[in-house]
Every structure is written in C-alpha cells, then in structure tokens.
Amino acid sequence: MATPSNRNANLLTGLPEHLSAQLFASARPVRLAAGETLFVSGDSGDGCYRVDQGLLKVSIMSPSGSERILAILGPGSLVGELSIIDGLPRSASVIALRDCELSFVSRAIFADCAVKHPQIYQYLVALLAARLRETDEVVAASSFLPLKGRLAVTLLELADHFGKDLGSGRVLIRHKFGQSDLAAMAGIARENVSRILNDWQRRKLVSRVSGYYCLEDTIKLARQVDL
C-alpha cells in the first residue's frame, strides 16, 4: 500500500522527448526557496508546473488545522495539473521542502500544444489514473492498516525515493523529516508517531543520525505492516 510519495506518476514519464520539449519550450522559469509557498488551496489555477530541481510538499488542511501530506514531488514531476483540465481553483497547497527550480506552463499554452499534438492527452490521462490509484491505496492504508503499519509504510516509501543504501539492510533517508511530517504523511497523531518511533529505536529498527532517520533493518520494519 502506498503513502505520499514521489513515484513516477507524472506526465513526463511517458511523454516523448520532442513533445516535452515543445510543451515546455516557452515555459516560464520559477524559483522557490525552501519553505516558500508555490500556491495554496483555493488559489486560482491557470496552469501547471514541472519540477526541474528540488522537492515539493503537496498537502491539505482540515477545518481543525491538521495537515495531511498527499505527496512529496521531486524532479520530473508535475504539480497543479488538474487546472489544465478544469481551470478550477487549486485543490491543495504546495510548499518547497528544498530550493526549487520549476517550469510553468499556462493552460492556454497547454491547450495550444495539445491541439497540434492531441496524443499529449493520453499521457495526461495516464498521469491522472496513476494519481487516482495512489489515492485509493492511501485510503485503503488509512482504513485498514494499524498505526504501526501505516508509519512503517511511510518510512519505507520515503526510503525508496530518498534513501541511501548503507548496506546490511540499512537505509538512510536523505531529507530531514520531523515527527509532524511523518504524522501528516501516515495520517496518524504525532503522539502516536513519537511512541512508535521510541519503541522502534529501542528495538534497533530505526535510528536518528544528525537529524536524519535511518532504517536499521528494512526487512523487520516491513513486517510491521502486517502486525
């Protein structure tokens, strides 16, 4: 089951190079510093962005102010693609986790390119289908997995996309995520994250190295999913 991730659910995964080049030929460069907001939920949507460098966090807020992280997007990913289709306001907020370089394409530019190359739409459909499948998996994980399983899946997904293999089953997650971030990704309370991590640290499943989480035994951690 999936958690918010940076897996290749994006238009550029299958878009031929010549189409990608034409679509982004007149793109406007955008730079964000770490912590800066790209847009917030409810903002007008008039185009989409390609992540060229950096890392973005996509999240929504509950009426009570709790955050739920929907995705962590890295280079090659698209963000804000729904506005390409319906032109409605942004459905989520996007913040830079690292300094970012983006390319912005307006809805008008996309529409003009799609008229000349209608096959672009098949890649957009594939993107949306992949995102929907991920959403289904996240809902299933939130509904059926125990708390430890949800946190284990979150850490393993982060290790898959941002991890450095240290050998002997150890993986260092090369981005600093706090307990609040992990809670927002797994969809559980931060207090539960703290309790579970303390238990796993005592059992040497997880450690903290200079502010980075290190999975000390990925095989044993994966077994927590089914407990």
Structure description:
By secondary structure, the protein is an alpha+beta fold. Helices cover 40% and strands 26% of the residues. The chain contains eight helices and twelve strands. It has helices at 17-23, 82-86, 107-116, 120-144, 147-162, 179-186, 190-202, 218-223; strands spanning 28-32, 37-39, 47-53, 56-61, 67-73, 78-79, 93-96, 100-106, 163-167, 170-173, 206-209, 212-215. It has a four-stranded antiparallel sheet. Strands 2-7-4-5 form a four-stranded antiparallel sheet. A four-stranded antiparallel sheet has the order 9-10-12-11. A hairpin with a 2-residue loop joins β11 (206-209) and β12 (212-215). 34% of the residues are buried. Residues 1-13 have low confidence and may be disordered.
Task: Summarize it.
By secondary structure, the protein is α+β, with helices and mostly antiparallel strands. The protein has helices at about 15-25, 80-85, 105-115, 120-145, 145-160, 180-185, 190-200, 220-225, and strands at about 30, 35-40, 45-55, 55-60, 65-75, 80, 95, 100-105, 165, 170-175, 205-210, 210-215. Strands 1-8-3-6 form a four-stranded antiparallel sheet. It has a four-stranded antiparallel sheet with strand order 2-7-4-5.
Topology (elements, then pairings):
Blueprint: H1 17-23, E1 28-32, E2 37-39, E3 47-53, E4 56-61, E5 67-73, E6 78-79, H2 82-86, E7 93-96, E8 100-106, H3 107-116, H4 120-144, H5 147-162, E9 163-167, E10 170-173, H6 179-186, H7 190-202, E11 206-209, E12 212-215, H8 218-223
Antiparallel strand pairs: 1-8, 2-7, 3-6, 3-8, 4-5, 4-7, 9-10, 10-12, 11-12
